[in-house]
């Protein structure tokens, strides 16, 4: 039998069937969707998709095959009786086929009774596309019909980061290559971290595909990538699980529920009335009418926040002549703000403030959603956020160093205690300027103050990230606390190099040529001292090993002393 006959047999006899693999929110411990993977009959030459689609491409029957696969997948998916989404693989090349009936997936979804917003169209980078602009066209096309869109196999094909950052898909699925042995490959970890950072900026959710080992999963969890798919959780099946017990797979972490401080958004979060997406608009209207101070209502399903229904938006809809008739029985999911600000309760206040104030039309009375492990936790208001930040700044000013305006010892100790309570690894770097006293004695305290300001400027320039904390202990001693220790050593080395490059102009030409100055030492004797250099003691702290900022301060001081044993600038690293 020829390839044409094999393929025709499968299509005409409707022998194709899907298997489904769950996509899991491991933080919320729930299944958010199922990817449909098409199969032919067992033992058939075209049983598996690689051969099946290759033959269809050769025979110019890709459009017919695609439509048959979608119909089979949707029919089988509806029998699963689930509220999750269907992830449907689509070859973007079919849009180039003049005979392909456009809008067929929408017609099929309506015919079979599934809302388009429950279908996620996966456009894969694996298919060779002659015109990369076709992917943009495909995204626009499917979005206009009401479907969500995912870019599948990111990193496996032609388009790369630039294209998907432009088209802003709802989901991005990272290719298995970058997940395999992720725990042993720093380059892959950096790739995944960069994808997460970019996805946050374009409001896309990232899914890790092909997870097979606990180590891979735990590394993804540490990177806060919680949408996962792979054999570790479930293999593709015609009867996939409706729920999964994930607790045995999760990494052991400390319970932080009672350990939040005033520097995280958890301090402002409060409980609030919530509605489910299928509740009707007239129910929300009654709630707003009964409670005149109620500003917004989170829309939540299975603990997951989906959006925010705001008083002013709802009242505007009902204010028209036919408002009640038109909207009273609409699902609140149809009229909610589907893209509210959502932040984790451990997010620093300063970070939340940056997110909020990015909106040029921010309303101080507006509320946003706070989550814990991606589950609904409560709401907080912009007004309370700004008030808390102002109070903290006033409080910090009391303890700030007057020369650099950096936080002093009290805020440093508080920050260290927070890091110890967080249950996460972190790092602390202790910076000390070598031979600073001889410079002060020779050039005067005013010039010495300029070097202190230089040091503060360099630290700010190289740690311009909300995840890093800079403190000024006093004199020429500074600390930086890194929430993410992975790049701490690299940053410290850059700071050392910058200091060495910037310090020479503080000496006169004669002293620069000599490479030293004469001054009185602590023993009262006149001697020569090298030009100022920088000693850095960097300590990388493993979670759970210490419980007091006093212990950390001792470790940092010891590391700094070892760095000062070198005659020139040096960073000594101590892994704990």
UniProtKB/TrEMBL annotation:
Q: What is this protein called?
A: Diguanylate cyclase/phosphodiesterase
Pfam families attached here? CBS, EAL, GGDEF
Which SUPFAM superfamilies does the record match to this protein?
Answer: CBS-domain pair (SSF54631), EAL domain-like (SSF141868), Nucleotide cyclase (SSF55073)
What InterPro entries does this protein's entry cite?
CBS_dom (IPR000644), CBS_dom_sf (IPR046342), Cyclic-di-GMP_PDE-like (IPR050706), EAL_dom (IPR001633), EAL_sf (IPR035919), GGDEF_dom (IPR000160), Nucleotide_cyclase (IPR029787), Rev_trsase/Diguanyl_cyclase (IPR043128)
Q: What is the lineage of its organism?
A: Bacteria, Pseudomonadati, Pseudomonadota, Gammaproteobacteria, Alteromonadales
Where the record annotates domain EAL, the positions are 1-250
**GGDEF domain boundaries:** 424-576
Q: Which NCBIfam families match?
A: GGDEF
Q: Name one GO molecular function term.
A: cyclic-guanylate-specific phosphodiesterase activity
Annotated PANTHER family: CYCLIC DI-GMP PHOSPHODIESTERASE PDEF, SIGNALING PROTEIN
Organism of origin is Idiomarina aquatica
Q: Specify the superkingdom.
A: Bacteria
Listed CDD domains? CBS_pair_GGDEF_EAL (cd04598), EAL (cd01948), GGDEF (cd01949)
């Amino acid at each position: 039998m020829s390839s044409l006959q094999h393929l025709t047999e499968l299509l005409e006899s409707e022998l194709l069937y899907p298997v489904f693999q769950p996509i899991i929110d491991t933080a919320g411990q729930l299944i958010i969707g199922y990817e449909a993977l098409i199969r032919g009959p067992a033992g058939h030459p075209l049983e598996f998709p690689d051969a099946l689609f290759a033959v269809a491409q050769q025979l110019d029957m890709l459009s017919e095959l695609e439509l048959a696969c979608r119909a089979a997948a949707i029919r089988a998916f509806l029998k699963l009786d689930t509220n999750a989404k269907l992830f449907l693989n689509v070859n973007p090349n079919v849009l180039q086929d003049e005979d392909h009936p456009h809008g067929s997936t929408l017609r099929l979804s309506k015919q079979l009774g599934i809302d388009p917003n429950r279908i996620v169209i996966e456009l894969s980078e694996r298919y060779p596309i002659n015109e990369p602009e076709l992917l943009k066209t495909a995204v626009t096309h499917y979005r206009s019909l009401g479907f969500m869109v995912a870019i599948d196999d990111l990193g496996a094909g032609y388009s790369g980061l630039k294209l998907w950052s432009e088209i802003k898909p709802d989901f991005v699925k990272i290719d298995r290559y970058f997940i395999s042995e992720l725990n042993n490959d720093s380059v892959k970890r950096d790739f995944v971290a960069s994808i997460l950072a970019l996805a946050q900026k374009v409001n896309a959710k990232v899914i890790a595909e092909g997870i097979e080992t606990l180590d891979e999963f735990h590394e993804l969890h540490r990177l806060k990538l919680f949408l996962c798919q792979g054999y570790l959780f479930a293999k593709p099946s015609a009867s996939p699980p409706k729920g999964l017990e994930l607790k045995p797979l999760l990494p052991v972490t400390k319970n932080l529920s009672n350990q939040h401080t005033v520097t995280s958004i958890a301090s402002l979060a409060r409980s609030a009335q919530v509605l489910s997406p299928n509740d009707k608009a007239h129910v929300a209207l009654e709630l707003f009418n009964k409670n005149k101070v109620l500003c917004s209502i989170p829309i939540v399903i299975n603990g997951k926040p989906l959006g925010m229904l705001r008083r002013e938006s709802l009242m505007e809809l009902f204010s028209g002549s036919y408002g009640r008739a038109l909207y009273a029985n609409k699902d609140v999911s149809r009229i909610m703000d589907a893209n509210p600000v959502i932040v984790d309760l451990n997010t620093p206040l300063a970070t939340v403030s940056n997110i909020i104030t990015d909106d040029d039309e921010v309303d101080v009375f507006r509320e946003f959603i706070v989550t814990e492990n991606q589950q609904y936790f409560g709401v907080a208001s912009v007004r309370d956020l700004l008030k808390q930040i102002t109070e903290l700044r006033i409080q910090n000013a009391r303890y700030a160093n007057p020369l650099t305006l950096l936080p002093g010892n009290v805020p440093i100790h508080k920050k260290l205690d927070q890091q110890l309570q967080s249950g996460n690894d972190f790092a602390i770097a202790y910076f000390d300027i070598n031979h600073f006293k001889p410079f002060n004695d020779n050039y005067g305290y005013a010039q010495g103050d300029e070097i202190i300001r230089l040091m503060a400027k360099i630290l700010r320039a190289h740690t311009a990230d909300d995840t890093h904390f800079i403190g000024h202990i006093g004199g020429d001693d500074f600390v930086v606390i890194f929430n993410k220790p992975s790049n701490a050593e690299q940053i410290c080395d850059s700071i050392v190099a910058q200091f060495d490059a910037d310090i020479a102009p503080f000496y006169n030409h004669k002293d620069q040529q000599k490479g030293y100055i004469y001054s009185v030492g602590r023993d009262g004797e006149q001697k020569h001292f090298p030009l100022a250099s920088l000693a850095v003691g960097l300590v990388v702290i493993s979670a759970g090993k210490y419980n007091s900022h006093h212990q950390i301060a001792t470790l940092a001081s010891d590391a700094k002393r070892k760095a000062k044993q070198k005659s020139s600038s040096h960073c000594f690293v101590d892994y704990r």
